[in-house]
Design a protein that fits this description.
By secondary structure, the protein is α/β, with parallel strands linked by helices. The strands form four sheets. The chain has a seven-stranded parallel sheet, sandwiched between helices. The protein contains 16 helices and 22 strands. 31% of the residues lie in helices and 25% in strands. α10 links the parallel β11 and β12. It binds 1,4-dihydronicotinamide adenine dinucleotide and 2-oxoglutaric acid (AKG). The site of 2-oxoglutaric acid has 10 residues, from loops. 2-oxoglutaric acid binds next to loops.
Length: 521
């Protein structure tokens, strides 16, 4: 049973995929739950997913944001904890674009102010002379999902649209009938500017006290993206001196807003972060993340992730068995070597090279690190932990697959030590280790194993068998590999339980056995 915690107001209809799943128990914040049970956390923007919260949920695997902006989630901390972060990037695009457009129309026609006036039993028609949108220039800063939906609506209103987005290609701008320009040009030309970027170090205060004077006198400013992209102090200054004709704000530097002078300004209209607040958007984002969380917990791929490369489902299904195998190969090396490792090289051959293998490499590194660190390690944080531990890694694709349809070879190197394990996955037969340190062998990497290095001499296997017999320990399977008769050889034995260390000590007394290492997979 997987345990999912929902901390913010998330549409119950949209949660149906989780609520209806047999293997999922959903808790709302006000219900009793054991933090140690929680494997998935679903939030909107109210919950701050930070180091403090993450450390209270030790078994958390995934945090899902029912929305776009993940600024309430400390991605670095989540990544460090091995927690996958997913969001719902397009479920609320239309609602937010429509809200922004409603704000633009309301702003230039003073609708909220006029509404209050009439409700205050006044009838002041002269005070609320507005401005037409027709023929005006709309400047859109940030031309992603929402920005481009706004452009379509503005064009329908026969506005000219100029946009600034450093990542926008000429062909996309052309396709959407907008003119892409440097920020300074957009600032000089626009009658109305609306911002639709994420809040980053580059976009914080993009329009501010020192550059708003460059805008046209009488410009209208709109922020339905994130508080702070238009600096509130600068905005207020230019509203007060009349340079800015009005502003529409759905988002604030601090929410709820504390800048009373700005919120109460007569030429400022405000909404309480309502961009995504429609039945449709809330259903969409909640349904999208619920499906992704369910897929993730059941070991399938997710459609979108912030800190994990996403793989198309068909490909994920094909490479799924290799993830398990990769982790086991990493774990074999880690347990067999027992010494510091500085470099790991993963080589892929055969049909596996047709797919994106970087995430598979991360799962091998995670498998290697798991036995060596006491934190959760997975594909999300493997690279960071490897770096922290001074382990470099790389991958390559080669043609030689030794007659198998696919091969994963992992070489780990430390000071004066090197080990190589080669594995394959055979459809209908399963995962096999087919080579270790120069020896061809063939065993299934699972359960409790004993890896023995010995000299190929008559009687060694018999002596080993005697020790197990004496200790009433049943050998489940046994595979031997050697290069030359009478030379160095290896054995891989499997057991139904973990082996006692005293038994290993006894085995090491056999003169022709140079090492015996237990591997628990
Ligand atoms: N008010 C509300 O309720 C909602 C607000 N939002 C916010 O709206 C914003 C936009 O969302 P989407 O369009 O879905 O995101 P998106 O990721 O599709 O688009 C963002 C665009 O900003 C551009 N960008 C990044 N840095 C830039 C910079 N320095 N200068 C100019 N452009 C830059 C990117 O290239 C991208 O095209 C986000 O901040 C999101 O959190 C989203 C949904 C609801
Ligand atoms: O209503 C919400 O959850 C906020 C939506 C939002 O700001 C976003 O998706 O980025």
């Amino acid at each position: 049973m997987f345990h999912v915690l929902v901390t913010d107001a998330i549409s119950a209809d949209g949660l149906a995929p989780l609520l209806e799943a047999d293997n999922i128990k959903v808790y709302r914040n006000n219900e009793n739950y054991n933090p140690k049970d929680i494997q998935a956390l679903l939030v909107r923007s109210a919950t701050q997913v930070n180091e403090e919260l993450l450390s209270t949920l030790p078994n958390l695997q995934v945090v899902a944001r029912a929305g776009v902006g993940v600024d309430n989630i400390d991605i670095q901390a989540a990544t460090k904890h091995g927690v996958v972060v997913i969001n719902a990037p397009d479920g609320n695009t239309i609602s937010t674009a429509e809200h922004t457009f409603a704000m633009i129309s309301s702003l230039v026609r003073h609708i909220p102010q006029a509404n209050s006036n009439v409700k205050g039993l006044e009838w002041n028609r002269k005070k609320f002379i507005g401005t037409e949108l027709f023929g005006k220039t709309l400047g859109i800063v940030g031309f992603g999902r929402i920005g481009s939906e706004i452009a379509k609506r503005a064009l329908a209103f026969r506005m000219k649209v100029v946009v600034y987005d450093p990542f926008l290609t000429e062909s996309r701008a052309e396709k959407l009938s907008v003119t892409s320009l440097p920020l300074e040009e957009v600032m000089k030309m626009a009658d109305i500017i609306t911002v639709h970027t994420p809040l980053t170090k580059d976009t914080k205060g993009l329009l501010n006290k020192s550059n708003i004077h460059m805008l046209k006198k009488g410009v209208f400013l709109v922020n339905c993206a994130r508080g702070g992209i238009i600096e509130e102090e600068g905005l207020l200054h230019f509203l007060n001196n009349g340079h800015v004709a009005g502003a529409a704000l759905d988002v604030f530097e601090i929410e709820p807003p504390t800048n009373r002078d700005l919120v109460l300004h007569e030429r400022v209209i405000v909404t309480p972060h309502l961009g995504a607040s429609t039945k449709e958007a809330q259903y969409n984002v909640s349904n999208q993340v619920s499906k992704d969380v369910l897929a993730f917990l059941n070991g399938h791929s997710v459609s979108t992730s912030i800190n994990l490369p996403t793989i198309p489902k068909e490909i994920y299904n094909k490479i799924q068995p290799f993830f398990q195998l990769g982790k086991k190969v990493g774990s074999i090396l880690s347990q067999a070597m027992k010494t510091p490792v500085e470099e790991i090289t993963v080589t892929y051959a055969g049909n596996i090279t047709e797919w994106e293998t970087s995430i598979l490499t991360k799962s091998i590194i995670a498998g290697f690190l798991r036995n060596r660190v006491d934190t959760t390690v997975n594909e999300v944080n493997a690279a960071a932990i490897a770096k922290e531990r001074g382990i470099s890694y790389g991958e390559k694709h080669i043609d030689e697959s030794y007659g198998y349809s696919n091969i994963i070879e992992v070489e780990a190197k430390g000071k004066d030590i090197r080990m190589v394990v080669r594995a394959t996955f055979i459809e209908g037969y399963g995962a096999r280790i087919v080579h270790m340190n120069g020896f061809d062998i063939d065993f299934s990497p699972k359960g409790h194993l004993l890896y023995v290095q010995h000299t190929d001499r008559p009687g060694v296997i018999g002596q080993l068998g005697n020790i197990f017999g004496k200790h009433e320990t049943n050998i489940a399977t046994m595979h031997v590999g050697r290069m030359l008769q009478g030379g160095k050889a290896i054995m891989m034995l499997s057991f139904d339980q973990t082996l006692d260390n005293r038994l290993i000590d006894e085995i090491l007394q056999i003169p022709d056995i140079s090492s015996a290492i237990t591997l628990d997979l």
